From TrEMBL:
Domain RNA polymerase sigma-70 region: 23-89
Protein name, entry field: Sigma-70 family RNA polymerase sigma factor
Protein's organism: Hymenobacter rubripertinctus
A GO molecular-function descriptor: DNA binding
Limits of the RNA polymerase sigma factor 70 region 4 type domain: 117-169
InterPro entries xref list: RNA_pol_sigma-70-like, RNA_pol_sigma-70_dom, RNA_pol_sigma70_r2, RNA_pol_sigma70_r4_t2, RNA_pol_sigma_r2, RNA_pol_sigma_r3/r4-like, WH-like_DNA-bd_sf
Organism ancestry: Bacteria, Pseudomonadati, Bacteroidota, Cytophagia, Cytophagales
Gene Ontology biological-process annotations: DNA-templated transcription initiation
Length: 184
């Protein structure tokens, strides 16, 4: 029998290990996917995931039920991962091609003709700032104002980086499609 999120949260508030384990099992893989998009390695994503759950368990009193708990937890995962990314910024931000299965596949887009590995490779080739803004906006659903606050940049810079990331990615995808078409 699967417990509801509210039941698990109540158990976590009371410090019950079984409820904490249940919440981890319920949200762990989803939040790991978030962490992988922002951390430069799987190991750091795992660290970010652990820190995320520590924050979730110690800040449950801050959850105000103003939306789904999962969205609140996801926001903690994003900010925790970004904080780790800032600490290791000189190494850049990337996903390994063998981690592509952890990233949700986009539907109904020009990316449909790419394998997950090709898509990850194209995303990894973007400059880190562009890639981060693209992830936050297109995947996480943050507004440009929120992205600016998270990254310490202006809203205009966020919009500009997203636009440049899209143009760069589109150009590379068209070039790859042209090369693939010429080899067929």
């Amino acid at each position: 029998m699967t417990e509801s999120i509210d039941t698990l949260l109540e158990g976590c508030r009371r410090g019950r290990p079984a409820a904490q384990r249940g919440l981890y099992e319920r949200l762990g893989s989803q939040l790991m996917g978030v962490c992988l998009r922002y951390c430069p390695s799987r190991e750091e994503a795992e660290d970010a995931l652990q820190l995320t759950f520590v924050k979730i368990f110690t800040r449950l009193d801050q959850f105000r039920h103003q939306g789904p708990f999962e969205a609140w937890a996801r926001r903690i995962a994003v900010t925790t991962s970004l904080n780790l990314w800032h600490q290791h910024q000189q190494r850049g931000l990337h996903l390994d091609a063998d981690q592509a299965h952890d990233v949700p596949a986009p539907g109904g887009t020009p990316f449909d003709q790419l394998s997950a590995e090709d898509l990850i490779r194209q995303l990894n080739a973007l400059p880190p700032g562009y890639r981060t803004v693209l992830n936050l906006y297109a995947i996480e659903g943050y507004s440009h104002a929120e992205i600016g606050e998270l990254l310490g940049i202006s809203e205009g810079t966020s919009k500009s980086q997203l636009s440049r990331a899209r143009r760069l990615l589109e150009g590379r995808l068209h070039q790859q499609a042209h090369i693939s078409h010429c080899h067929d």
